[in-house]
């Protein structure tokens, strides 16, 4: 199999799941490699996502590890054998790999849940809003690098606006809706964009009002992506050190609980829509 010079997050996740199968069965990598007619080094590359695995070998691996979860096996086979290029591939070598990984993960998700405290979610941003955010965070970027970032962010909206839209629920703090990242005109246009997405059924939006008591989740920003089965869900966290993909079950459980807690602190969809309408008039 050809080595990948830069495995995607999806490749890494597949390798991680295969490693979990092996470890759950108590099998050393050397033993599984031998059963597959491979080497320990190649097995390590597969589990790191830097080398592909065929459907036949994947099924043999699952059988050797006594995995009887057919849904899981079929989902892993789909991950291993998919060869479709996505729209995000046109940005290879133009944007950081993590930008492409996020778009690919969103594309494959069965549902999307997001909590954003300080900014409007990327999937709902207007071009002017996105440009202002990127320009402020990375003032050194020339137009040749800024423009592709804005364009990529706008194309990500296809996941909730396309022919087969992915169910999307987001929770935004009122604080984020009030911040003028650009000027008044851009802020009004941004709020109207959110309302349009709501009215068109592309997004379920909940708002945490500024007068909400007992809300200690100021650092709760997250994206939660549903997989073909819960075990293959994915969490996404933005940290000072960069974007992190989460697949450990304990962490996924924590993110599910966190989303429910933040959801409980937010207004319902109807009241949230009314608040956004009010903010438009206020601006």
Are there runs of 5+ residues with pLDDT below 50, and where?
none
How many distinct beta strands? 6
Q: What is the H/E order?
A: HHHHHHEHHHEHHEEEEHH
Structural class: alpha/beta
Overall pLDDT confidence: 94
Largest sheet: 6 strands, mixed
The rough form would be described as elongated
The helix content is 40-55%
In DSSP terms (H or I, runs of 4 or more residues), the helix count works out at: 13
Strand order of the largest sheet: 3-2-1-4-5-6
Q: Which band does the percent of strand residues land in?
A: 5-15%
Radius of gyration: 21 Å
Distance between the termini: 58 Å
Summarize the structure.
This protein is α/β, with parallel strands linked by helices and 283 residues long.
Q: Can you characterise this structure?
A:
The protein has 283 residues and is an alpha/beta fold. Helix content is 52%, strand content 11%. It has a 6-stranded mixed beta sheet with strand order 3-2-1-4-5-6, with helices on both faces. The longest helix is centred in the first third of the chain and has 16 residues, at 9-24. The protein is elongated. The termini are far apart. The relative contact order is 0.12. The model has no long low-confidence stretch (mean pLDDT 94).
């Amino acid at each position: 199999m050809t080595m990948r010079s830069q495995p995607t997050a999806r490749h890494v996740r597949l390798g991680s799941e295969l490693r979990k199968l092996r470890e759950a069965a108590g099998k050393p990598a050397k033993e599984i490699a031998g059963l597959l007619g491979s080497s320990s080094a190649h097995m390590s590359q597969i589990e790191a996502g830097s080398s592909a695995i065929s459907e036949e070998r994947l099924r043999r691996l699952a059988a050797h590890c006594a995995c009887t979860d057919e849904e899981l096996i079929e989902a892993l086979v789909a991950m291993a054998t998919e060869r479709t290029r996505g729209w995000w591939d046109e940005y290879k070598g133009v944007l950081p790999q993590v930008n492409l990984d996020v778009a690919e993960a969103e594309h494959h998700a069965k549902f999307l849940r997001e909590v954003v405290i300080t900014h409007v979610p990327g999937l709902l941003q207007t071009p002017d809003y996105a440009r202002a955010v990127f320009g402020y965070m990375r003032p050194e970027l020339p137009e040749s690098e800024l423009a592709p970032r804005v364009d990529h962010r706008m194309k990500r909206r296809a996941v909730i606006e396309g022919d087969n839209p992915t169910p999307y629920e987001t929770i935004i703090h009122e604080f984020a809706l009030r911040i003028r990242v650009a000027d008044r005109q851009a802020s009004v246009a941004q709020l109207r964009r959110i309302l349009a997405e709501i009215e068109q059924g592309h997004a379920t939006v909940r708002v945490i009002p500024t007068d909400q008591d007992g809300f200690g989740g100021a650092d709760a920003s997250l994206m939660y992506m549903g997989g073909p089965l819960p075990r293959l869900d994915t969490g996404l966290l933005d940290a000072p050190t960069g974007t992190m993909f989460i697949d450990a079950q304990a962490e996924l459980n924590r993110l599910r609980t966190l989303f429910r807690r933040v959801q409980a602190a937010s207004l319902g969809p109807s009241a949230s829509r009314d608040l956004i309408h009010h903010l438009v008039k206020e601006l």
